[in-house]
Amino acid sequence: xxxxxxxxxxxxxxxxxxxxxxxxxxxxxxxxxxxxxxxxxxxxxxxxxxxxxxxxxxxxxxxxxxxxxxxxxxxxxxxxxxxxxxxxxxxxxxxxxxxxxxxxxxxxx
Length: 109
Fold this sequence. Notes:
By secondary structure, the protein is mostly helical. The protein contains seven helices and no strands. The chain has helices at 6-9, 25-28, 32-36, 42-60, 77-88, 92-95, 101-108.
């Protein structure tokens, strides 16, 4: 039995550029892969709870609420907002996302 090489299992590009990993929010909102490939960690699950709680309090209180999302370049701000948008529009795949097994296991260990 010959060992499989990593390049046989996944696509490894010859070259990458910083812009290759940027999600333009307006494009990411409509991409199936944005939701499918998103990995929810325990910390992200808490962040979604906080964000959804803010939206809920604004709707129930019939008042405007403001928040800001802070993070370094490439930290996932646009991905987070794209998933939050999908959750709020009722997308079943986004609403059904669970904390990824490896992250859940690390948290409960």
